[in-house]
């Protein structure tokens, strides 16, 4: 069988011959990483901006670790209303970073990096813990609460035991915690995901498909996946006929 081999090259132009060879190689590798998965560009030349970007990423990672330890990441609850009755029927936990020097940092300035670095898994876990603590405090105070939705990564979804243990630890009904997973997760190893979803739903969790319509979804997917709720991507709000068809 014939196979097409595609080569990618990262290059570093030597300007200082006294520089150790391993650092030269590191810079060439850094250039190579900048075009990873890019089918339009097969080579990249190292420049100082790549180095500054790497420093910024390391700084952000260290800042994130420190902020998590200092509990600077907080869940902000976005309410969900029934448009027909006006009743409050739920909420969604959104992460915000309350930095001691910079104040409240909007998620657009830190979430994309954390999603690419893998730190988002630990951050999501922290937010779920905070949400469960909040719900448990309402329950113990006799205050009526509504279900709150939290983000779940694909890897966490495959191992439902941690989520079950979480609500058991806080003595919460599973229905109080709604689990959001992005639609892209359904395109990867669907049988395993459906098996995990079945376990969580049988235990009493509600499962939401987030950002429906951003690239992987189709109406046939809704036939194959026993999802409880879908969250339409906001781009659909501008097309009433499409919105009605999906509903």
* N- to C-terminal distance: 47 Å
Radius of gyration: 22 Å
Sheet-strand content, in percent, reads 15-25%
Poorly predicted regions: none
Protein structure class: alpha/beta
Order of helices and strands: EHEHEEEHHEHHEHEHEH
Averaging pLDDT over every residue, what do you get? 85
Share of helix, binned: 40-55%
**Largest β sheet strand count, sense and barrel closure:** 7 strands, mixed
Count of DSSP strands? 9
Count of helix runs: 9
What coarse outline follows from CA principal-axis ratios? Answer: globular
Topology:
Layout (H helix, E strand, L loop, with lengths): L8 E3 L9 H13 L9 E3 L2 H22 L3 E9 L6 E12 L3 E3 L5 H7 L2 H21 L7 E4 L2 H5 L2 H9 L7 E6 L7 H14 L2 E7 L6 H6 L4 E4 L7 H7 L1
Descriptive terms for the model:
9 strands, 247 residues, single chain, globular, 9 helices, alpha/beta, two-stranded parallel sheet, seven-stranded mixed beta sheet
Commentary on this structure:
There is one protein chain. With 247 residues, this protein is of the alpha/beta class. Helices cover 42% and strands 21% of the residues. The protein is built from nine helices and nine strands. It has helices at 21-33, 48-69, 111-117, 120-140, 154-158, 161-169, 190-203, 219-224, 240-246, and strands spanning 9-11, 43-45, 73-81, 88-99, 103-105, 148-151, 177-182, 206-212, 229-232. Strands 3, 4, 5, 6, 7, 8 and 9 form a seven-stranded mixed sheet that branches. It has a two-stranded parallel sheet with strand order 1-2. The longest helix is centred in the first third of the chain and has 22 residues, at 48-69. The radius of gyration is 22 Å and the shape is globular. The N and C termini lie far apart (47 Å).
